[in-house]
Amino acid sequence: MDFSLSEEQxxxxxxxxSFLAGRYDFxxxxxxxxxxxxxxxxxxxxxxxxxxLAAPFPEALGGIDGGPVETMLLMEEFGRYMVVxxxxxxxxxxxxxxxxxxxxxQQEAHxxxxxxxxxxxxxxxxxxxxxxxxxxxxxTASASDGGYVLGGKKAVVEAAPWADKLIVSARxxxxxxxxxxxxxxxxxxxxxxxxxRDFRTIDGRRASEITLKDVQVGPEALIGELNAGxxxxxxxxxxxxxxxxxxxxxxxxxxxxATKEYTTTRKQFGVPIASFQVLQHRMVDMFIAxxxxxxxxxxxxxxxxxxxxxxxxxxxGAKVQIGQSARYVSQExxxxxxxxxxxxxLNVGHYFKRLTAIARRFGDEDYHLRRYARTG
Amino acid sequence: MDFSLSEEQxxxxxxxxSFLAGRYDFxxxxxxxxxxxxxxxxxxxxxxxxxxLAAPFPEALGGIDGGPVETMLLMEEFGRYMVVxxxxxxxxxxxxxxxxxxxxxQQEAHxxxxxxxxxxxxxxxxxxxxxxxxxxxxxTASASDGGYVLGGKKAVVEAAPWADKLIVSARxxxxxxxxxxxxxxxxxxxxxxxxxRDFRTIDGRRASEITLKDVQVGPEALIGELNAGxxxxxxxxxxxxxxxxxxxxxxxxxxxxATKEYTTTRKQFGVPIASFQVLQHRMVDMFIAxxxxxxxxxxxxxxxxxxxxxxxxxxxGAKVQIGQSARYVSQExxxxxxxxxxxxxLNVGHYFKRLTAIARRFGDEDYHLRRYARTG
Amino acid sequence: MDMRFSDADLAFxxxxxxxxxxxxxxxxxxxxxxxxxxxxxxxxxxxxHEKKGWAAPNWPKEYGGxxxxxxxxxxxxxENARAGxxxxxxxxxxxxxxxxxxxxxEQQKEYFLPRILTGEHWxxxxxxxPGAGSDLAGLxxxxxxxxxHYIVNGHKIWTTLAQHADWMFCLxxxxxxxxxxxxxxxxxxDMTTPGVTVRPIITMDGAHEVNEVFLENVKVxxxxxxxxxxxxxxxxxxxxxxxxxxxxxxxxxxxxxxKLKLMAEQESVDGEPLLxxxxxxxxxxxxxxxxDALEMTELRTLAAESQGRGxxxxxxxxxxxxxxxxxxxxxxxxxxxxxxxxxxxPPGPEAEAPAIGPDYTRGVAQRYMNMRKTSIYxxxxxxxxxxxxxxxxxx
Amino acid sequence: MDMRFSDADLAFxxxxxxxxxxxxxxxxxxxxxxxxxxxxxxxxxxxxHEKKGWAAPNWPKEYGGxxxxxxxxxxxxxENARAGxxxxxxxxxxxxxxxxxxxxxEQQKEYFLPRILTGEHWxxxxxxxPGAGSDLAGLxxxxxxxxxHYIVNGHKIWTTLAQHADWMFCLxxxxxxxxxxxxxxxxxxDMTTPGVTVRPIITMDGAHEVNEVFLENVKVxxxxxxxxxxxxxxxxxxxxxxxxxxxxxxxxxxxxxxKLKLMAEQESVDGEPLLxxxxxxxxxxxxxxxxDALEMTELRTLAAESQGRGxxxxxxxxxxxxxxxxxxxxxxxxxxxxxxxxxxxPPGPEAEAPAIGPDYTRGVAQRYMNMRKTSIYxxxxxxxxxxxxxxxxxx
Lengths: 376, 376, 395, 395
Description:
The complex is a heterotetramer, with 2 copies of chain A and 2 copies of chain C. By secondary structure, chain A is of the alpha+beta class. Chain A contains 11 helices and 10 strands.
């Protein structure tokens, strides 16, 4: 039993820390998220050069052989700086699917682009009627011309406005919400019939509502076996969930530091407000909530390779804990900051929004509570 | 709109207050609940003489024409002093059923005994398998000899050890949990086949597990119509619920006073512990919880005569609020008292137990939350 | 004890309800305050004023108010909330008006009160300062008497809708030597006076609702002093008392819950309406019970007030519970809309485009963010707890 | 990063598990501590001592302890909790033993340590006083040196199981002039000394678990002073540090939840097992997740400790969260048993009679009451928050 980092992991963390410290101050981020594009492609390329986009891939595929712990380390730092670039979508989600289930041909065709920072991906798994259930899919895939034709609607596809490639889940067989019959396809965003309505998300990122109308893909677009995509999707969503749990931990730690800094500086009634015992105890509860979230985020990462039920339970438990901690810490941080806490001019409100977004990505508290109870 | 008391109501409250102030100090109560019998029949007789046992009955039946507000006033004071005598069971529950649904003959036969303090009643409505659902009845009543034969098991019948009469709910028709087919019977506790196992309750009172084996009752034992007892029972349980809500309010107010008294007297680190802001805010939250409980207890009393759905919703909402407030106030009062709060030698622990008991009588939070949601 | 309204009050309620139904412009219903123009915001007040003389529910009749009883004011608020009308302009009508009625001189009353009623003057409130949040008495804005004028220098913050304002009522320090709460005066400042600068503060929901107001050598005629110099704290406290009434917002929360239920009926979880899932329905029931309790507590306060016992510091309960409920409703709405809670709709042209998800998802995330302010403003909920601890519990 | 135990630790776990299975007397399983006799309470310790030399998991080997690593101690605690064995006698083994090992003189070690191991001596703790709850340093019990003795006068309270005790380790004030935490000494008092009186305190669950101890001109030989006169505070802090480890009680809570689930499977709500009702299963899941998080936090602390970083003030988290979970389990159990939560089973003969309701309902209400103490003792949870605020957050 050992929760310390290896030398390589420490190096990785240090390098991403110093990378972000120099490039991701509040003002730079602020102007980025308010710009036309909303992200920094040039920074993405620098991240590729630094090897960050290669982290979770085996050396044989051009990666650096990192695992869930490496992803956790990176995501925590991304959380701390509220990085908007699509690491989660491109590297963890799409990259993870290709790594785990892609054919050799698919890996050869696509991983170099991801690792090299040349290609941005987004995963279109959710649908308007389906809430958080990845099996609740109305998008269809029918065999056609040796390939498939896709049709349907995908909801809130994060990072899609920046992407050139999509992975789309569709029902090739079975009824809505049935486990079998889900398949995953690689779709060129520029393909005919792909229609995106782009919008901003509350945490300063971009997403799209995507309509697919008679989108033709070739047989090489299918990831894994036909009709057997749901377990792949679920496994990948769990990995993504573990990753944003670490992201949330980074946000919460930063918020706690900001709150301490503010309350020890800000004076009212002639003394720093941190001297009020009520605020002290509330900051202690914020600290405890963050520690418990940290524990569960670590557990989630370390259980990603366990068998299905154990993995699901660890992920569900972590997401519930992170949801509760994020809610408490973000609301209290704003409250303890008072008026300035609700402005757009201070990082506190931005962390608040980021944590609010994370709390509902890949399923909210209720969704994961039910999942946890089911595996109990 | 007016929440002030009438002159008569004020008089009633004053009289019960001075009655209890002189007779119900902590030590007297303590030795009573630890005595063999566990209550004070002589005090009961004094309560009768004072007219308290006549409160909720019409003048025509020998009462003083009080309504839910009078019951609320009395119960709040009983709560404040943690009165163990069976006012709720005898007067509110059994008396209320006889008043609302008893035949003239039943009223003439039994109400004078109740009002005069000569007869103590208990209502056996709950069953081991039925939890809080009064329709979940396995006890049976079959026609026999012009009357009925009862058989079954009744759970935690409060005040039964002190009672000479019981009102028993039984299924005369229909399936378990069906609304129709429940009937109510007056049963002499001394009747053959009635077997009581007596025990103490956590709040210093007494109750019995009652087994009924071939208990024969006459036709005059039936209250109301055959098979139509459930609405009567439910209405009565709502009235009883409103009454213990007021009881709980009395307990909470007393606990808040005790906590204030203790924290302003007790010194630590050289100052009264009430000067610590954390404890102040927690006492404020105890105060708010008590005020909200008070509001809902009043609403419950005032809605008892509304039509069924409105009444049920008000009662269910009140019971949920009282349950939450009682839990918070009782736990915090003990915590703020520290070690002495958990001893049997101080009233705080006794209020804690009383509130704990009230929180689950006539249905706990979950039961009433479901009921509230159903009527929404 | 009786929780029903009197027949006269019920008749009044019917009159109010009918008046609203007949006169409130439907296109203004439930519009977000900060996406409305100044004229939009004033439209309903003007209709009330012109048709009924009902613009100022809390002013005495002699000054053009309604002279309503506490119960009538309550009913008015309830019915407006239920119907989703534009809220009464708080600063002119609810706050300054009563102060002028009580403490203003004749010229001030004559000049300002009618202009508040017609909406000719839009008022904003210059209380908070960057250095003094809940500690209002620590304010630093200085007013120095020079002849017929005060010269005002200072910096106000959180000034709601100051971008629309013609006038600002303002707390300034006139005696820097006096102890904290003494030496403060209550000044009326024309926003067009040279030296007054308004800077928008954008809040995290993207709204321009509050501002900073910089005052640089602003010349304010002495006749714009309300009451006595250095006695401003008295008027400020009087005003804060008024601000707190109605803060429970019971009817608005009730209405918000009704809409929340409509949303939750349309959202589904694995084919079952969200509204009927045990987790959500439980949270909803808990919230409604909290609101039921608050409503009864407010009615008890109101009944006491009707009998001449003014709303005491217990009204801090209404602030605390009321704002917690308002926040909770928006939080459950955010939960209800699922993925679409991530959609950010900035104010401006995009706000008019079709919603990204179902119509009811529009602006849900923004409302959640916006409501965070409620436990901070008007005396933070921490300050309210301090008040109860001291004034009610005597700790 | 790796949350798995090493192979050696896993082998140790198997050994412990087998030893417990083979040797723990089944009739003592899960018995309530305060319905057990002194011999019952010591039985398991004696078995461990005689068969394995495992009576003192936290003593160095040279004094008859096990010399186990932090992970081994953790495993030992876990396995015992899982099996429901009688908890280790806290006062002799866990508290005093390490103090004597570290600060006692040779005679004290030689005389007392073996008698603690065999259970010949039962120890109790004389720390708390009526005037000083969480403010331990305010203690008033006086010890005045007269020749070869101290004469001790004072009043101790909350003395757990003093009714069984042969000896008490006790904090006394030896220098009344010194500042609070100086001038305190650590004395060992024979409970049979004239002037020692034990008065039971009955707690609200009806149990006789704690006592008051009155000390009236008690003559204590100077050789019963531990360490240096006036340095007792050092030893007391050392001891409190030991007391806190293991306070998370994860394995015991896990076991309690397992039993709670069995109850909730048997209880039914309108025909459905309570365990499967959405309300209850939700609360249970929330509790289990809280426990999962605490377990991980404890493992992180443990891993840090194994690498030589001692458990810092962060261990206050374990106290706070651990006790809240322990309390919550008993609260849910009380909810689970429905009406039978009203049954009070006083200690004594009645406790041996058949349960009033189903067997699993026995004592459920008492456990709920009894657990209230956990957030009060061992430094109240408020004090723990103060510690974190000061020592960890630096506020």
